[in-house]
Structures are given as C-alpha cells and as structure tokens.
Amino acid sequence: MKKRSYLFAALPFIVLAGMFEILPVLTTIVKSFLSEGGGGLTLENYITAFTKPLYLSAIKNSLMISLASAAIGLLVAFVAGQAACERGGRAKRVFMSILNMVSNFSGVPLAFSFIILFGNAGVVTIIGQTLDIKALAEFPLYTVWGLMLTYIYFQIPLATLLLIPAFDSIKKEWKEAVSLMGGTNITFWIKVGIPVLLPSLLGTFSTLFANAIAAYATAYALLMNNYSILPIRIAEQFKGDIVQRPEFGSALAVILMAIMVISMAATQAVTKKTGGKRA
C-alpha cells in the first residue's frame, strides 16, 4: 500500500518528465530517421552529417572547444578550489558568493560583455591602442580563440562550485601523516589528494564537457554563423530563412546527444575502474 502511495505522489513528476524530456527525445530520434518532408525511413541524414565537410567540421570544432575549455576550466578550478578550502572562514564564504553570482552569468549577456571589453571598439581594445599594447589592441575576439575564452570564462565558476565540496573531504590528518613520513605537499597531492578526488574530477570534467558542447547562445551572439559548431548547425535547420530541414536537424541533435551520453558513460566506467583499484 505504501509503494502505491509513493507512486501516486511521484505521478506529477513522472508526467512532467514524460512530456518535457522523454517524449521530445523519442520524437527527435524517430524524426532523425525520416527523409525530408516526413517520408519513409532512411539513414541519409546521418550519412550527410558524417560526410559533408560543413557538418563534419561542426562536430570536430565542438569536440575541440568542449574538450579544451573543460580541461582548462578544470585546471583553474582545481587551484581555486584548493585555495578556497585551505583559506576557509570568511574568505571562503565571500568566494562562494562570488562564484554563485558569476556562474549564472552566461549566454547573450556574457557575449555582450566581452564585446564591450574586447570588441573592435571595446574598452580594453581602446586602452591597448592608446598604450600601444598590440596584444590588447588586436585581441582576436571574433575568432575561435575569442570563443574559447568565453567558454573558459563560464566553465571556471561552475567547475569550482562542483569541486569545493570534494576538497572539503580532504582531511588535514592525511597531510600531516604524509609530512611525518617525509613527503612534500606535491607528494601528498600525487599520492593521496588527486587519487581521492579522481571521481569528482572526472565527474566535473564530464559536466563541463556537456555544458560546453551544448552551449548555443554565447557562440551565436558572438560569431553567429561565422564559425561552425554543432548547436549552431542544429538551430539553423529549424529556423533557416530559406530552407528548414527538421529531419536533418533532428539527426544532428541525436549525434549531439550521443556524444554527451558516450562522454558520461566513459566517465562512469573510468570512475568505477579507478575506484575499484583504490579499494
């Protein structure tokens, strides 16, 4: 009887999840195997995605930017999270408040802020021209490097927020034990700290990768269609000014979902393997 009451209480959540998550995913998968115009079943959409240079480069560019921004964001967040936890007290609380505020700053407002700072008539660009600092005066904002910078910017706060609870699990007694045995701080992190944090590091990297590869608003506001990445190529299939190809766009969306699922599955497999070895 209790199981039925719990199921009844969860019914609204099940209905919402089915309507807004499960049903759209299933519809997208089915539509990706249909020919243009809703005809018969076909694999042409997937063949086009993996053979045409435009869409193949979009997949490669998305993977490159996502992997690079996730790795750099994780590295910076590791140092920031460690420093915040070691400092502790009021400094940590202030740092956490700033992180919570900055982590919500993304999308079009983030792109607009970078344009104000580093655009052709941006504040930093004008300062660089005035002081004859070439690196600032000719900052490549409207290129892949500028896009990478914006991605790294919104990756670092998210990664730091995810890692700080993991750093809190590191006990001071472990550091003292390593020190008594003649080990240095570097020895502690190589032999104890990083192995303990490895599941959290891998999970955070997977989250950052998924966060970057699905990002659309920032990239579109900054570069529009001038740089080929998967989310932009998906969007243009549904809101193209001349031709709309929802079936092909669904195939690209399924490819994006598959990449994210493979990434999470690989992370879980490596986490279980390393966890088993430590055990």
From TrEMBL:
It is a multi-pass membrane protein. The keyword Cytoplasm does not apply. Gene3D superfamilies: MetI-like. PROSITE patterns: ABC_TM1 (PS50928). It is found in: Cell membrane. The keyword Cytoplasm does not apply. Pfam families: BPD_transp_1 (PF00528). The chain crosses the membrane at residues 63-84, 105-127, 139-165, 177-202, 208-227, 248-270. GO terms for biological process: transmembrane transport. Residues 59-267 form the ABC transmembrane type-1 domain. One of its GO terms (cellular component) is plasma membrane. Belongs to the binding-protein-dependent transport system permease family. CysTW subfamily. This is ABC transporter permease subunit. The lineage of its organism: Bacteria, Bacillati, Bacillota, Clostridia, Lachnospirales.
